[in-house]
Each structure stands twice: as C-alpha cells, then as structure tokens.
Amino acid sequence: MRGPHDIGGIEDFGRVPRDHDEHLAWHESVMRMLFALALLGLARTSGEVRSFVEAMSPEEYRARGYYERWLVAVEALLDRARHSDDAALAESASGPSAAALGFGDQSQPQPGVSQPKPHHFDVGSSVTVRNNPPPGHNRLPMYVRGRAGIVRAMYPPQVVPHAPSDDLREPVYSVAFLASDLWPDAQDNDEVLIDLFASYLDQVRGIE
Amino acid sequence: MTTHHDDESAKHIAEYVASLEEELITRGLLNVAQFEGLMETYFAECGYLHGARAVARAWVNEDFKALLLGDAPTAFQQLGISNYDPITVVENTDEVHNVVVCTLCSCYPFWVLGLSPVWYRSLEYRARVVREPRKVLAEFGVHIPVTRRVRVWDSSSDMRYMVMPIRPPRAQSTTEDELVRVITRDSLIGTEELA
Fold it and tell me: Fewer CB within 10 Å of terminal CB in chain B, N or C?
C-alpha cells in the first residue's frame, strides 16, 4: 500500500548527508536517455515513468542512489522500445524539441475528449484529504491522508497521475496543513503546504 | 545490482549505462546533440544564478518583486530565462521562513537552480524536513525563533517552488549585480539564511 518512495515523515532517518555534490558522466547519460525515451512516447505520462521507480521494494529503493533509481525507468522504457517498431520510433526521435520534455507539459488537452468534471474548491475553504486515491499511480503521500487543511491556491489543470494518457487533467490545489495536525511534536503555527489533485480532496461541509 | 559505492562497481555501472546509451544511439532512438542545451541547463553547477538574478532584481525593484511573487514564469521570461515547469516563488519575511522539499521523489526547478544538491535528493532530507523542519534547518545552521512560522512546501505536482530570501542588512546599499553574488543556492531552497 505505501510505496517505497513515500517516505515523508518516516522516522528511520538520521542526519542529512552534506556530501560534496558528485556529478558523473553516467548521471547525465541516464537523464538524457530518460528524456529521449519519454519524448518518443514510450512513456505515456510522467506518472508512468515514476511508477517504474516506485515498483521497487523498499530495500532496493533505499539501497539505490538517485540516478540508479531513474536507471530502472530507463531499463523498463528501453525494454519497451526493443519490442516496438524501431523505424517508427526513430522517425519521432528527430521530431519534438528537448524543451518539450514530456514532463510538466503544459499543452492543453485535445478538444472533443470527454472528461468528468472534477470538484471545485474555493481558495480559503476547508478540505479533507481522501484516504484512497484513484487506482493506479498517485501523488498523494500517506502523511496527509485523512487530514484536514485549507485551500490556499488553485493551479491550472495538470495531467492526473493515474491517467492512462496525458489528456486527462484536473486542477491542482495548494493545500495548507497545520504541522500540529500532522505530527505529534510539531511547533504551533508551523505549516506544511502540498499540491493535491482535485480528486484527492473532499469539501468540509457544515461550518460555512 | 544493489549499491555501487566501491570503485569496481562504480566502473561497472558507468560501463553498463554507456552500453545502454550506445544501444539507444544505434537504434536511432537518441540523438545526443538534441539534448545538449537541456543537459547543460540541467547539470549546471551554477544554475542557481538564474534564480539569484531574479531575487536580486526583486530586492531593488518593487514592481519586479510583485511580478516575481505573483507570476513567477513571466518574471523569469522578462529576464530571458526560459521555463520548463510552472513555478511559484515564496517570500521569506520576519514572520515566515519557507523551505522546499519533494518528499515523493526530488522535484526541483533545475532551470532556475541548476543541479540539485545531493542533500536535497537524500532520503534523510525528504523524510525529515516535512516532519521536523526546525531540527533539519538547525543542522544547516539555520535557527528559527519560535515566534517565526516555518512553512514547508512539498512540491508534489508539476508546480515548482523557489524561496526569495530576506535581503541581508549588510547588502542594503549594494548594486543589483553585486547582490547576485550575495545570494546562495541553499538560500533559494530555504536551508540557509543570508547574513
């Protein structure tokens, strides 16, 4: 249920390492391959890329370094490429610019695609976070599930993490939580703000 | 494959990744030249100078400050800095100290801050700063008085965050170009206060 990547608030961890930043050539290769394979359309969404990484066991996830984790996604996408029509893929390889990335793509959905209308929440309203996000990939960490917060901002629609393709979008809300509503030893008045998709939230009714 | 800390395994993974990249190139799936500009931006050690330029401008120009805090992508465009993701800039004040994390992976605005630091990507930072930000900040030498609110931003969507630090007292009369050099990468993430 809890993915290996969902570590916010877990207490197993010690001091933050302050190692010198290490930049190796293979790190660059991993990211270049990941961007290239995603741009080819081998990854349907950035959520799918992340889901390869998040399918690891917690032990493997923690044992691997940052770029070694992305390497898992590269291997999965490359495997898909090996079973695809190379000629068609190669043609698209020279197509879109690297700036398009596929990650954080802000293009609008194609007209005519029917989408269920997501809930709308006003800035300043109280919301609770659902315990069960839609099936599939999600960006809903455990530490906010079931908790109540306040909507501070609404962001333009983004591709939903559980979408099978990148034409299903929802507004994203910046939701503020009192730290003391999340953690037992938190300082009064400290806050945690996190971005949550509309389908992760319910309106708190009654006191209005 | 598990960990790669010793020299032998480091060599092994480098060779393995090179062989994968070779395969992509041979198959016509990767054109390295196409990614030159992106990789330079992504791995720029001094990439935070983009963010620093925006903050320095905001410190000397109230209109630009309002734009940076209200519509950061447009503010960066005005400085000739291209956007890859949506971004929000949050202001440190005497009442609030902001700090940024991505607990689920390590999302980071590379096009304004360059290569993310190792500590930002660490499991320790991701797990702890959202729960005990004051303790983590103290490890970085940042001590926030109890009267000042700490606000942690967990960047869980495509939105990226950058902190606008407080202009240090010693830099009240310096020029915009000099101010750029006063600003550090970590102050733009929220783990350093400028003295």
Answer: C
How far apart CA B18 and CA B176 sit, in angstroms, is 43
Q: Does the beta carbon of A85 lie under 8 angstroms from any beta carbon of chain B?
A: no
Contacts 24+ apart (CB under 8 A), B61-69: B65/B164, B68/B164, B69/B164
A199 shares a domain with A132: yes
Model confidence over A129-169: pLDDT tens digits?
A: 999 988 889 999 999 999 999 999 999 999 999 887 778 89
ipTM above 0.95, yes or no: no
Domain B42-189 in CATH 1.20.1250.20? The answer is no
| Rounded (10°) angle between helices B7-26 and A25-39 | 30
Report CB contact under 8 Å: B156, A50: no
B118 touches chain A (CB under 8 A): yes
| pLDDT tens digits along A111-135 | 445 556 778 999 999 999 999 988 8
Residues 28-57 of A with CB under 8 A from B: 28-33, 35-37, 40, 50, 53
Question: For residue A131, is it within any domain?
Answer: yes
Q: How many domains does chain A have?
A: 2
**B153 contact A CB<8A:** yes
Domain limits at A70? Answer: 25-100
pTM exceeds 0.80 for this model: yes
Is 80 exceeded by the pLDDT of residue A207?
Answer: no
Q: In this structure, which amino acid lies at residue B59?
A: W
